[in-house]
């Protein structure tokens, strides 16, 4: 079979999801499609490796295979099963996990394959036959190309699943900006404490590859609280051909998994898009955190943003470490976190604050920001913070926004040049920031011609909010955040 073209792969993957349409909600597709794709790839590459071994030495042995596939777990075995197809799929996936405990334990997730009311045999047979229409060998589909297809599917599920998208997908154009500014390097350990489907780790890997660096000596680490999403991240990294990665499932605030020598493991680079304003977290445990992550204070119960912020600071290497965090603008100025913000600013950890435009988060019109921190700034940057007002550097498309290459280039150049550009960027001394109660709101320091338009645009923004909100609770959080930001911007006007 000839090489599979990307357009063919994308159609193939999305049509697999269409087989399930009508049997479940769109938000559930990923529970079934990702494991099926991974299982099909494993079976096809196992066959490919077997054929190569027989052609070269006349026999096949377990050591010829990166992943072991027991006979009863092979795709073709289940494909020929006459009934109870769901039970056959579930058994195959568990057998593969058991045969590869160090690599694949729990990787297939916990989808309800045996629920015949949701997935009758006929539907599962149709799904299997659809996937059987292409051979997903490495010869037909190299790892980077399959990984690109996998990312396409992640993006499509995010678009199609509504409010659940933010659980596992961060706007990749924003990720590319974060990577472009901090430039991961060969030999570094890279960490995402709320890794979702692993997009930031994959983008770091791609950056090193594209810049000609050695990518096989980097360490990729991620923690994710959701079982399915952590499994998707592991599959994502496998399908991109990554050999050395560590994805752990668990609550990063309550039970950080990466520890060594009785302390948190620290990394060269931390990239994160933490869940926004979570309320169900163990504040009392944090107040006496055994890892010392509460150095700058204990956040309010209703908002754990600064708990994640401090976890990231504590997880960054003390001399060379750097981090980039994607957040809504509220963390820059909210009164409830004032004391913690003042201490972090005074510690001279914040290097740059970039204000981005609206609709870069899924199902929320809120503007976002990137906060870049360094454990130890270069001498010429000590006692200063660079503010970049890039709210207009977006491309809006329906209810989502994106950063085009020219937007990413302009923002990254401003960060690298570290200089004042009227209406766009400004280097600010810490004493000026501290005089503003350490508020990091971009309009306080960088004025644009459109700043006075916020007041006129508020009804329009509220209208967009009402249309796009899918959950009342999340929607109210969004509204309060926007009103806080509006009031903050209004104070900044001359």
Question: How is this structure best summarized?
Answer:
The chain is an alpha/beta fold and 494 residues long. Helix content is 43%, strand content 13%.
Structural class: alpha/beta
Low-pLDDT runs of 5+ residues are 452-475
Helix content: 40-55%
What's the level 1 CATH class of the largest domain? Alpha Beta
The counted number of beta strands is 13
CATH architecture descriptor of the largest domain: 3-Layer(aba) Sandwich
What general form does the structure show? elongated
What portion of residues belong to β-strands?
5-15%
Secondary-structure element pattern, one letter each: HHHHHHHHEHEHEEEEHHEHEEEEEHEHHH
* CA gyration radius, whole angstroms: 24 Å
Number of domains: 2
Cα-to-Cα separation, first versus last residue: 67 Å
Quick tags:
single chain, 494 residues, alpha/beta, Ferritin, Rossmann fold, 9-stranded mixed β-sheet, two-stranded antiparallel ribbon, 17 helices, elongated
Describe the overall structure:
Mean pLDDT is 88; it is low at 452-475. The protein folds into two domains: 6-142, N6 adenine-specific DNA methyltransferase, N-terminal domain (Ferritin); 162-492, Rossmann fold (3-Layer(aba) Sandwich), CATH 3.40.50.150. A hairpin with a 2-residue loop joins β11 (395-397) and β12. It has helices spanning 6-20, 29-57, 75-79, 85-99, 101-104, 121-131, 143-160, 172-182, 199-210, 227-239, 283-287, 305-314, 338-346, 405-417, 430-435, 454-468, 472-492, and strands at residues 189-192, 219-224, 245-249, 259-260, 263-264, 269-272, 322-328, 350-358, 367-374, 384-390, 395-397, 400-402, 425-429. The chain is an alpha/beta fold. The strands form three sheets. A nine-stranded mixed β-sheet has the order 3-2-1-6-7-9-8-10-13, with helices on both faces. A two-stranded antiparallel sheet has the order 4-5. 43% of the residues lie in helices and 13% in strands. The chain has 17 helices and 13 strands. It starts with 5 loop residues before the first helix and ends with a helix. The longest helix is centred in the first third of the chain and has 29 residues, at 29-57.
